[in-house]
Write a sequence for this structure.
């Protein structure tokens, strides 16, 4: 399933990597695309939306 | 010796860690203090100033 999140606080490539790895922690197969300027994170994953959002939040970013 | 660098491009804690680790790559004993808002990196190290600056640059940050 395709999930789209608005994520605030990603300021650099390290942040993109941190968010990607957090999502892969929930689902190692997750496909992640990030548009940092637009604050958009797109995730193709079979995991529950709330589990993905929680992983982003636990990494220290705000999911709008 | 105490070295002070003005470093541009550090936007988050990951950047601070990356710069710190780059400096420790040159001198594992280096003591590093970073004031990100002020763009200041202070390094206590016996390594040559240019080696420290080069490590910061190679990590992708601008040393002014
Ligand atoms: Cu960052
Ligand atoms: Cu950063």
């Amino acid at each position: 399933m395709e999930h789209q999140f608005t994520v605030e606080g990603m300021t650099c490539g390290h942040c993109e990597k941190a968010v990607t790895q957090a999502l892969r922690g929930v689902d190692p197969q997750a496909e992640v695309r990030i548009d940092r300027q637009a604050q958009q994170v797109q995730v193709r994953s079979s995991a529950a939306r709330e589990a993905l959002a929680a992983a982003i939040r636990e990494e220290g970013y705000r999911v709008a």
About this structure: The interface with chain A takes residues 11-12, 14-15, 18 of chain B (CB under 8 Å). The mean pLDDT of chain B is 98. Residues 2-63 of chain B form a domain with the Alpha-Beta Plaits fold (CATH 3.30.70.100).
